[in-house]
């Protein structure tokens, strides 16, 4: 540490602040594109630690960008903070946000030595909205040398292997009528949905086992004695790759078209976002992360069927097609409780969650440090424990405040 560099917070103060941030997000869940408080709290946290912060980044009201240092190379830590309707932070995005922010904060003392600019990108709408794809198209990830985030799950898994996915909004428009007195005057939009779902159920017999087709009906009618004139739903179609996804999506759409044809209703089948891509893992960064995770005591020997959260689709897949990236899963040791269950939201705060937060932030910071140290011949990563490096980053040489 140079004489000019201000003293860092103590380990207890530092970890306490990250836990406070995570638990605040958890207590106030906001869904896709509505993460106004989460974005503000993220900006405030990073501003406290000397980052240059931009809110409403690239014109997106709930996106945040923060940077530290002025090096010629860029590392990006990806923050997610949207929650799920009805079950809150049942995917643990509060922990994703805290791990990424914590890793960026921990890496600050090495920014000058590694010729780095440390970027934190707060990304809205991962849960079906494709926020990262919108940001990617706007140039948010341009020139990153590495993008990193870690995702909580029931157990550790070293890499993401997600399905490509299309998210579609379905609407049938028919004609209302009195169900007893004038049923022949109606065109039943709810029947259209029933026929479509039966067709999809039959289609599944001919689909490869590496595909997924699922969804919900969100509007089904108003009263039993009113033939529904409009129904709506949301449908997800998944395949191994984008190339395999589009022909599958066409077949799913034909099932909905069959429902419309049979009931004499009108179908609107419209994408909710751009499709999410399969993931391209940067193997060198993945090896570094896995090695440090094992040294820290993380384990990757859970049964494969327990690790399948790593098949969940993510819009970071699209980013990974353009810049080097990793997306490991870090376990809360809670199987069979798993993501998108209310019980999983409950374990995303508390003792196990705090350990995941500390480990995840440490491992992302150490991975980035070694990745760029190797590339610049700046020397190997520190030899102390990851916990020591996280709580006392001044043990490593570094530059002043960015």
Structure characterization notes:
It is a single chain. The chain is an alpha/beta fold and 402 residues long. The chain has 2 domains: 11-162 and 276-395, Zn peptidases (Aminopeptidase, 3-Layer(aba) Sandwich); 164-271, Alpha-Beta Plaits (2-Layer Sandwich), CATH 3.30.70.360. It contains 11 helices and 12 strands. Strands 1-2-4-3-5-11 form a 6-stranded mixed β-sheet, with helices on both faces. A hairpin with an 8-residue loop joins β1 and β2. α3 (93-107) packs across α10 (351-376) and α5 crosses α6 (242-263). It is elongated, with a radius of gyration of 23 Å. This is Peptidase M20 domain-containing protein 2.
Name a few traits of the molecule.
Amidohydrolase, Alpha-Beta Plaits, dipeptidase activity, disordered C terminus, elongated, alpha/beta, 6-stranded mixed β-sheet, 402 residues, 4-stranded antiparallel β-sheet
Number of domains: 2
Q: In which order are the strands of the major sheet placed?
A: 1-2-4-3-5-11
The CATH topology of the largest domain turns out to be Aminopeptidase
What is the name of the CATH superfamily of the largest domain?
Answer: Zn peptidases
Number of helices: 11
The CATH class of the largest domain is identified as: Alpha Beta
Radius of gyration: 23 Å
- Helix-residue proportion: 25-40%
Distance between the termini: 14 Å
* Model regions low in confidence, pLDDT < 50 over at least 5 residues: 1-13, 378-402
What is the general shape?
elongated
Number of strands: 12
Averaging pLDDT over every residue, what do you get? Answer: 90
